[in-house]
Amino acid sequence: MFGIMMDKQLNIADILEYAAQYNTDAEIVTRQVEGGIHRYRYHDALLRTRQLANALRALGVHQGDRVATLAWNTYRHLELYYAVSGMGAVIHTINPRLFAEQIVYIVNHAEDKYVFVDLTFVPLLEAVQDHIPGVKGFVVMTDRAHMPNSSLPNLLCYEELLAAQSTQFDWPEFDEKTAAGLCYTSGTTGNPKGVMYSHRSTLLHAISSCRASAMNLGPLSRVLPVVPMFHVCAWGVPYSAPIAGSSILFPGAGMDGASLYGLIDGEKATSLLGVPTVWLGLLNYIDSVNGNLDSVENVVIGGSAAPRSMMEKFHDKYGVFPIHAWGMTEMSPMGCLCVKTPYLLSADKDARAAIQSKQGRPVFGVDMKIVDDQDRDLPHDGKTFGRLMVRGSWVASGYYKSDDRSAFRGGWFDTGDVSTIDADGYMQIVDRSKDVIKSGGEWISSIELENYAVGHPAVAEACVVGVAHPKWDERPLLLIVRKQGAECSKEAIIGYLADKVARWWIPDDVVFVDALPHTATGKLLKTEVRAKFARHYLDLAS
């Protein structure tokens, strides 16, 4: 027996149609790539999105075609999110910080029909244009006055495309499992892998993520997604904010501390979303100008583990509640968050910090467990390490155009993370399986060492990798970027760590560097660090 209910399909265009009609107070504010601030409301966005859908149809884009973007977080990128998927095509957000060879690979692998590009990234496409022959044309996301002189073939102007089209468009209704978005993993090892999202998965993710038990978005929220829209859909904010009636503040290309602070302060942002490296830059800038974060209620920190010192500064100095979060490209990306609870609000500083150092509890719609190397379930005791497995309605079941099923077993996805889960359901990432250090048969968490190291007042950033050792197979090596003008020695760092971790966790050496390599999303690029320092201890012993 079935329920007697309507069976309306979940289609992405319905989100914007709803927001335009009912969330009339909300703003979409963008720091433009061309300079200046652009602002409009959801109704304006809807009309322009309909024009864009008509333009795409006029260009010969059909259902299922892939349309790529190389763009910052802007109102035009938002329009593409809805127009492309709303008409039945697939929006493919490309990470412009990938290597040129990787960009060529994913454009060809996705078989992108058109590429929409911000002014910043036109030279990038010019450099690879001969290697992506399947692309029919390129659309620069600007107006005629700012169009570049470019060698790109079939070069079109975004604003001219829209101006020629009607603001009326009948959105087709199709099966909610129809493909809507395509995003490739960062590809730190091998070629990037494509994750194909559906209308259904995107809608369910958006509805779940804006709830009070997740990112807590509502009509009074003014949310600033610093997480790039070319990276896992900016944590789903372009979809969840319109549902919740929230205003969106897009930073454009201004990702530095000064630019972000100007937008936060000027537009009275209430919610921030980004990775730790971005927040380090912001906090350092605010400290330097004696600024404040009076309008901000919470900051979502994901992408990599947030140092305790960072979370304490947000909470204790600036009155901002830090929400530790975790997710992956394969999870659309939201998996779990460490949100406000009665216990956290009443707990003392140390108890609160102990919980907030964990990535949080799964949101409804995501199941988690940890397993050993034989895929046997491990206890949720907060101590036992295991490989983190997930499943859910917005979790990938495979990779686009790939026969590699090694990460998908028994209806679960193997995240590649090593974690613990405690009795209350809080998950904590111990390390990536490829980054965990195995020394003399014991596991050492590089993440935990890094988090302790950045607590030192002279340390701006830390990176820990395992490198070959003549006696212990591998040992941790600690790389330090000092804060500007600060001084500290190897002995000072080792002494600082001595009472914080087990003695055998202490790195055998500390190397001071001017900068550390990062992935396109701000994560430490440990593959490059390991390669550079692969023989460090072997050479010291010789």
Give a quick rundown of the structure:
The chain is of the alpha/beta class and 542 residues long.
Describe this structure in words.
It is a single chain. This protein has about 550 residues and is an alpha/beta fold. Among the domains are: about 5-200 and about 230-245, Rossmann fold; about 370-430, Luciferase, domain 3 (Roll); about 435-540, GMP Synthetase, Chain A, domain 3 (2-Layer Sandwich), CATH 3.30.300. Helices cover about 30% and strands about 25% of the residues. The strands form 5 sheets. It has a 9-stranded mixed sheet with strand order 2-1-11-10-12-13-14-15-16, with helices on both faces. Helix 1 runs parallel beside helix 8 (about 235-245), helix 2 (about 40-60) packs across helix 3 and helix 9 (about 255-265) crosses helix 10 (about 275-290). The mean pLDDT is about 95.
Find the count of extended strands (DSSP E, 2+ residues).
26
Rg measurement, Å: 23 Å
Strand content: 15-25%
CATH superfamily of one domain: ANL, N-terminal domain
Task: List the topology elements.
Elements (H helix, E strand, L loop, with lengths): L12 H10 L4 E5 L5 E5 H17 L7 E5 L4 H12 L3 E4 L6 H11 L1 E6 L4 H7 L8 E4 L14 E3 H6 L15 E6 L9 E5 H11 L12 E4 L11 H8 L2 E4 L6 H11 L3 E4 L1 H14 L8 E4 L6 H10 L3 E7 L6 E5 L3 H5 L2 H8 L4 E2 L3 E6 L14 E7 L15 E2 L2 E10 L5 E6 L4 E3 L2 E3 L1 H8 L5 E11 L3 E10 L7 H8 L11 E4 L13 H7 L3 H6 L1
Parallel strand pairs: 1-11, 3-4, 3-5, 4-8, 5-6, 6-7, 10-11, 10-12, 12-13, 13-14, 25-26
Antiparallel strand pairs: 1-2, 8-9, 14-15, 15-16, 17-18, 18-20, 19-20, 20-21, 22-23, 24-25
Helix pairs in contact: 1-2, 1-8, 2-3, 7-8, 9-10
